[in-house]
């Protein structure tokens, strides 16, 4: 007699394999029970598969007969005649990615261009999604920058975003928890979405030249428990700051629920320096950093931060503010000027929960000095140092650091990642032997080195 695990146990085990598509796929072949459980997990997010064209073909196979008849009657000849699929795959989907759907259907872009009636296939797939998915969790219609011009005109020409009006759309979208989108989509779409979706936890908006502020503002305002906001402007020029100010104002409504704020190419607005974000734990800023505004923000909101990333900024005043106002940081990404030794010391001494520091090419502090300060002043929980494009030109510097780390009490094994600036003469073979020695002593948990 073959013993089998209860279905609930199998479900929990397979859940742990959600990111391991290959292993889950192999589970399909064991028996019908394993197959059913694996399929349910694999089809939650079908857009991660490399063979996206095959996924699209399966979706076409899943189309209801009325959709296939409509397509054939309109001259679409690529509809396969096949037996119904083993499972109702579409009903298992929890993620909808419009870019993957378009790109996956046509390498396919040229087919849509040459024969616009092929657009009907995309439309019918979207109808199927809206009708058969009981509760979509994530939706993405943010295209890569290279294709922006094409898709902007595509949206305008075909207006396929009317999927929000398809039968079943309200039920399908009402529990949406994650949304990634571009700002050039017309305001009406966002206004309609704001009437349906009130439970978005994570919102990512990429601002383009055409900004539909009214709809986006309404969408932000109507959320009940918004926890994460990302605003990006890829050219880093800050030219949209005035246009998105109302979006920032709408974000302040969520000052008690917001946990993560990410700004790329857009400065932190001054209105945020007057508001307490009581649950903010993660702040990431990339380009267009206004140091004075950020310091004012940290004065009132730094206490609760656990993760802070400030990319492309090399300022002692900011680092001093981090030391003084961010005592509970666990992870920090910031650069240090060559005269920033005291500020780094203060960060190590004042931020006693600190576990990780990452610093990159903006830092002028030498790799040798950084290692010395980390060994001497970092708190007991510290265990990860990531140095990018730093100058580290002697094996002795590393050996001295490892030796000092070995004497720490308590000893916490270290993860050290070093990407040099191409100037240091360190020999990889010598480094490897040194690392193996200290791994054996329990000093090093992980080590990566590159001088390129």
UniProtKB/TrEMBL annotation:
Residues 2-46 form the F-box domain. It holds the Pfam family F-box-like. InterPro entries: F-box-like_dom_sf, F-box_dom, LRR_dom_sf. SUPFAM superfamilies: F-box domain (SSF81383), RNI-like (SSF52047). This is F-box domain-containing protein. It comes from Rhizophagus irregularis. The lineage of its organism: Eukaryota, Fungi, Fungi incertae sedis, Mucoromycota, Glomeromycotina.
């Amino acid at each position: 007699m073959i013993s089998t695990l209860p279905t609930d146990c199998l479900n929990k085990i397979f859940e742990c394999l959600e990111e391991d598509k290959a292993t889950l796929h192999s589970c399909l072949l064991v028996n019908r029970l394993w197959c059913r459980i694996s399929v349910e997990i694999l089809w939650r997010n079908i857009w991660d598969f490399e063979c996206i064209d095959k996924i699209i073909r399966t979706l076409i196979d899943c189309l209801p007969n009325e959709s296939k008849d409509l397509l054939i009657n309109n001259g679409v000849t690529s509809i396969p005649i096949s037996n119904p699929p083993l499972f109702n795959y579409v009903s298992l989907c929890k993620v909808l990615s419009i870019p993957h759907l378009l790109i996956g259907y046509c390498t396919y872009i040229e087919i849509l261009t040459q024969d616009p009636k092929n657009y009907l296939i995309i439309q019918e797939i979207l109808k199927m999604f809206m009708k058969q998915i009981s509760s979509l969790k994530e939706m993405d219609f943010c295209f890569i920058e290279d294709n922006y011009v094409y898709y902007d005109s595509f949206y305008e020409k075909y207006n396929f975003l009317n999927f929000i009006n398809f039968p079943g759309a309200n039920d399908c979208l009402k529990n949406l928890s994650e949304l990634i989108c571009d700002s050039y989509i017309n305001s009406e779409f966002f206004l309609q979405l704001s009437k349906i979706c009130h439970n978005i936890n994570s919102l990512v908006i990429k601002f383009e030249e055409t900004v539909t502020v009214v709809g986006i503002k309404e969408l932000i305002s109507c959320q009940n428990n918004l926890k994460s906001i990302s605003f990006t402007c890829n050219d880093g020029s800050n030219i949209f700051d005035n246009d998105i100010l109302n979006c920032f104002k709408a974000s302040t409504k969520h000052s008690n629920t917001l946990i993560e704020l990410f700004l790329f190419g857009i400065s932190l607005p001054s209105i945020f320096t007057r508001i307490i974000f009581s649950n903010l734990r993660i702040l990431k800023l990339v380009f267009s950093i206004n140091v004075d505004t950020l310091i004012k923000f940290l004065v009132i909101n730094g206490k609760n931060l656990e993760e802070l990333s400030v990319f492309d900024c090399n300022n002692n005043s900011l680092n001093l503010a981090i030391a003084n106002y961010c005592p509970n940081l666990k992870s920090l990404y910031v650069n240090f000027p060559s005269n920033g030794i005291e500020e780094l010391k203060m960060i190590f001494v004042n931020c006693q929960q600190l576990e990780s520091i990452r610093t990159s090419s903006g830092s002028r502090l030498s790799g040798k000095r950084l290692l010395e300060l980390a060994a001497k002043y970092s708190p007991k929980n510290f265990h990860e140092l990531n140095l990018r494009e730093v100058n580290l030109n002697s094996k002795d510097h590393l050996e001295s650091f490892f030796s000092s780390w070995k004497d720490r009490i308590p000893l916490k094994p270290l993860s050290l990642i070093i990407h040099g600036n191409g100037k240091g003469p360190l020999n990889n073979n010598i480094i490897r032997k040194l690392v193996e020695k200290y791994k054996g002593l329990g000093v090093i948990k992980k080590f990566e080195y590159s001088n390129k």
